[in-house]
Amino acid sequence: MGFVILILIIVGLTTLAVSYYKQDSIKQVEGQLEENSITMMQELYKVKKKIRVLEEEIMLEDQDHTKG
What we know:
By secondary structure, the chain is an all-alpha fold. It contains one helix and no strands. Helices cover about 95% and strands about 0% of the residues.
């Protein structure tokens, strides 16, 4: 009976140690996800800005063609 209790204590302590390790890895994944989100937002902003500039250039070219 004492042997079974000893095994259960060891398994419990091992599980506890693993749970602390898993929390750290989750924090790392959350950090990476946040960094990727920020990077994607920055890239999206740059693309939208370039599209806006291109649209303005197209509008100016259309105005030149209609005048000329």
